[in-house]
From TrEMBL:
InterPro entries tied to this protein: Rossmann-like_a/b/a_fold, TilS/TtcA_N, tRNA_thiolation_TtcA_Ctu1
Keywords recorded for this protein, A-Z: ATP-binding, Nucleotide-binding, Transferase
Pfam families membership: ATP_bind_3
GO biological process, one term: tRNA processing
SUPFAM superfamilies on file: Adenine nucleotide alpha hydrolases-like (SSF52402)
Binding site for ATP: 29-31, 35, 61, 131, 136
Gene3D superfamilies named among the record's database cross-references: HUPs (3.40.50.620)
Protein's organism: Holtiella tumoricola
Annotated protein name in UniProt: tRNA 2-thiocytidine biosynthesis TtcA family protein
Length: 240
């Protein structure tokens, strides 16, 4: 996938869901994975030609793992001309050592989101951009269905009452495999997650399930996503 292709997906999502307003200050949550780094590149390019002017900040919530070297990400942000803030936390120690959580992802995710909201607000941002892609949206639908018995997934735009910050997900139309290809081709400075729970989660199981079903049922991912767009799920609308 070329940058133009990525930008066409992002621009369409931003316009369909009115994700960006004139004067927005947008904090991009950088996990240092392929999605958030691709999002950083896309929004930086969008800034050049999008009719509404907006500003960007890049933020990583460091979870406190030892082997998490962000120096290449720092250099990358500098090259792009986006200010980068790394916020150090003890989330990993709290989740794994102190609380010995049986479901560490849930507590970690809550604490990480809280920290990201706080830092974004401190830096004067009114929006937070997250790197969830089309496959993440589909997987979340199936996870809600299979594990919680309800029909739900993340929305393209979510306003958080308590922190008065709006979450936007400009990659919702981009398939994960395109992002993987883009990250490789562009040599994005992806840092492997040091989390021991990475890759052994419910999300990973669901991802593999969709992957194997798609071999039997071509277009499965597109149909799932189309069903979300045509559904009554909060925040989605049909493009037809
Ligand atoms: N430690 C973090 N600091 C800042 N933002 C984060 C962090 N972890 C996750 N995010 C944000 O939340 C989004 C979803 O998180 P998740 O852990 O599901 O990432 P992912 O799907 O693996 O994406 P990525 O490839 O960017 O890691 C990320 O794309 C990123 O925007």
């Amino acid at each position: 996938m070329k940058i133009q292709h990525l930008l066409s997906y992002v621009r369409r999502a931003v316009q369909d869901y009115n994700m960006i307003e004139e004067g927005d200050r947008i904090a991009i949550g950088i996990s240092a994975g392929k999605d958030s780094l691709a999002l950083l590149v896309a929004l930086r390019h969008l800034q050049y030609f999008y009719p509404k002017k907006f500003e960007l900040e890049a933020i990583t919530i460091s979870l406190g793992f030892d082997n998490f070297d962000l120096s290449a990400v720092k250099a990358f942000c500098e090259k792009l001309g986006v200010r980068y803030t790394v916020y150090e936390t003890q989330i990993a120690q709290i989740v794994f050592d102190e609380r010995k959580e049986s479901n560490p992802c849930s507590l970690c995710s809550k604490m990480r989101k809280g920290a990201l909201n706080d830092i974004a607000k401190e830096l004067g941002c009114n929006k937070i951009a997250l790197g969830h892609n089309k496959d993440d949206i589909n997987e979340t639908l199936l996870m809600s269905l299979f594990y919680e018995g309800r029909i739900h997934t993340m929305s393209p735009v979510t306003y958080l009452d308590r922190s008065e910050v709006t979450l936007i997900r400009p990659l919702v139309y981009v398939p994960e495999r395109d992002i993987k290809y883009f990250a490789k081709k562009e040599g994005l400075p992806v840092v492997k997650s040091p989390c021991p729970a990475d890759g052994v989660t419910r999300r990973e199981t669901t991802k593999q399930l969709i992957y194997s079903l798609e071999k039997e049922i071509p277009q499965l991912s597109n149909r799932l996503f189309g069903a979300i767009e045509r559904s009554e799920i909060d925040g989605w609308k049909s493009r037809e």
